[in-house]
Amino acid sequence: MTHLNTTRSTGAAHSRRRILDSAGLRGFALVSALAVVSGLVAGAAVAAEYPSERLNVTVAFGPGGGNDILSRTVVGILEKYKLYPKDIVVTNKPGGSGAVGWGFVFNQKGNPYHLSTNSGSFITTPLQANTPWKTTSFTPIALVATDDLLLLVNGKSDIKDLKTFIDRAKAKPPSIGGIGAVNVDFIIPKVLSEKANFKLASGNVGVMAATNEAVSSAQFPILAWVFAAVIVLCLVTYRSIRATLCILIPLALVFIGVIGGR
Length: 262
Description:
Helix 7 (about 205-240) runs antiparallel to helix 8. The chain has about 260 residues and is an alpha/beta fold. Helix 2 (about 65-80) links the parallel strand 3 and strand 4. It starts with a strand and ends with a helix. Helices cover about 45% and strands about 15% of the residues. The strands form two sheets. A five-stranded mixed β-sheet has the order 4-3-5-2-6, sandwiched between helices. It has a three-stranded mixed β-sheet with strand order 7-1-8. It has three domains: about 25-145; about 150-205, no CATH class; about 215-260.
């Protein structure tokens, strides 16, 4: 089975090639729940007082991801060069492919001290879920970086170009590997398949197929290391080949039974 892997490459250290659609579907931007009208009504008095409070930056995903890293990098630059005179607090509010975090910022409408970052899910989440907010409910502030979407195959594959991949995909629907089933990692390959007239292994089936391939290819090397470690520990602990065999044989039988039952 052909394995189609869509991988995102994110990082402030790399230059970005804007190879995706002009809508900036995979763009990373700063957005605010401050409506344009609210900003105009506030007038010069508010502008003169701003900023007078700490700035709250909400990351709609968990710690350690690309969105979180880039958000904290931007905040670090603001703090290092004292570009914002008050404190800046970054808070992770993951859940619902961004719905929780962006919903929180949406509820701060009119408050200029709440900002968030976004990703492709900023567009796809309200299209798939019944969120009280839409992409247009927020005020874009700046496009900080863009994300490349890479189409990869296994390094041992003889597929070397897009035409060959499409020809193979027409003959046998490929599976998809990505970070989720309903987001940009799925939508863009889906659009590609429709334009190039080939089918994809659908939905969770495709994702599970890709995952199963990866697990199957890795399980034997991992088990070899596990058995080697068990042998060493048993010999060191019991100093007996017989005792070691008494432990290894049941483990081996269980492993054979699991493999045979698939």
